[in-house]
UniProtKB/TrEMBL annotation:
GO terms under cellular component: extracellular space; fungal-type vacuole membrane
Signal peptide annotation: 1-19
Keyword Ligase: no
Positions of the FAS1 domain: 26-175, 177-311
Organism: Jimgerdemannia flammicorona
Pfam hit, one: Fasciclin
UniProtKB keywords: Signal
Superkingdom of source: Eukaryota
The protein's name: FAS1 domain-containing protein
BP GO annotations: macroautophagy
């Protein structure tokens, strides 16, 4: 199942969302200009340079050609931008805040929603089939949130301002569009995986793929294995075994009604199971089962899900666990922390050896 833009499923609107009684006679751009103290700085920003004229025209339509939903940063967020308003790239940042069609708060289902933005510039968007960059919208009892970058979240502070050509949701941050998988992995602090990618000259392979899902083991997962025992061929297999062609967001994975086999770029299958809304991934040998501990981190060519176990392809199934690592210590002290430090040291020594031979891999 390849990525398909997941637009909204109707659900009940959260009671805390502020209802608007706009008469729908204003366009989006006119509405922004009248929201003094809220969104007028965003409107002023657009009006301040000829490079945004196409955007102004788009948001000034009467709705007969197209409707849009705009997540508009409030004045405080715009103020934080400082001099970035002169940045030519700001056009693409703004496009990442705009969705085709009208999406009121009630149209988003509880949990994770994936929606398509207007940003499909080939310099930033490496999804397959000319699919525009997506946006994650999360809905819970407190309202709507938009996770972005690696550890940032924008909150919808006011929803459903209605215009004749669409809807405005006011947010408290300026969103940034997704970046390459390798830089995302680095920014997430997945240090062991990032070192493994660099040591095998693999970053270019995952960064240039069109539409991929990466199940990325966290550092604790790598600490459970004596990676110094891996040879070059094995580390290539292990990395490729965590990359799947096609984009599978968590709503796609939880939609599986029975265990589903996905073929990795290493060539072997992994099995994905939906267990009461939680997602488990089992390797081909059945020896290792990983849980997704953080889902739906967007990249410019797909998505990353962080998992808690390193999956091992069948030919590597005899790789021993790092028995010196004790993760049963729940107080965060003593042997668990010390063993992790030792595992990182041994892995670093291995990477120095591998890096000397600059290995190019093909998933």
């Amino acid at each position: 199942m390849q990525f398909k833009t997941a637009f909204a499923i109707l659900a009940s609107m959260a009671a805390s969302v502020i209802a608007q009684t706009n008469t729908n006679t204003s366009t989006i751009i006119d509405l922004l200009r009248t929201q003094t103290g809220q969104t007028d700085q965003f409107a002023t920003l657009l009006s301040g340079s000829p490079q945004y004229q196409n955007l102004i025209t788009k948001l000034s339509g009467n709705g007969s050609d197209a409707n849009y939903t705009v997540f508009v940063p409030n004045n405080a967020a715009i103020t934080k931008l400082g001099a970035v308003g002169q940045n030519v790239d700001l056009t693409n940042i703004i496009l990442y805040h705009i969705l085709n069609g009208s999406h009121p708060a009630s149209s988003f289902s509880s949990g994770i929603n994936i929606v398509s933005t207007l940003l499909n510039n080939g310099s930033y968007d490496f999804y397959s089939n000319n699919i525009a960059l997506p946006l994650v919208v999360s809905k819970n009892d407190t309202g709507l949130q938009i996770p972005y970058s690696t550890n940032e979240t924008a909150n919808v502070t006011q929803a459903d301002l209605k215009a004749m050509n669409g809807i405005v949701h006011i947010i408290d941050s300026v969103l940034s569009y997704p970046i390459s998988p390798s830089n995302t992995i680095k920014n997430l602090g997945l240090n062991q995986l990032y070192m493994a990618l660099n040591s095998t000259n693999s970053t270019g392979n995952i960064d240039t793929k069109k539409g991929v899902t990466i199940f990325a083991p966290n550092d604790k997962a790598f600490g459970q294995f004596s990676l110094a025992n891996l040879n070059a061929s094995q580390i290539q297999n292990v990395i490729g075994y965590h990359v799947v062609d096609g984009v599978y967001f968590s709503p796609n994975l939880t939609a599986f009604t029975s265990p589903m086999n996905l073929t990795t770029q290493q060539g072997k299958n992994i099995t994905v199971k939906n267990l009461n809304g939680g997602i488990e991934i089992t390797d081909v040998s059945g020896n290792e089962t990983a849980k997704i501990v953080r889902s739906d981190i967007l990249t410019n060519n797909g998505v990353i899900h962080i998992i808690d176990v390193v999956l091992i392809p069948s030919e590597n199934s005899t790789i021993p666990n790092n028995t010196s690592t004790n993760f049963t210590n729940t107080n965060g002290k003593g042997s668990a922390a010390n063993s992790l430090h030792g595992a990182e040291f041994s892995f670093a020594a291995f990477l120095i050896t591998v890096a000397a031979a600059v290995i190019t891999i093909a998933f």
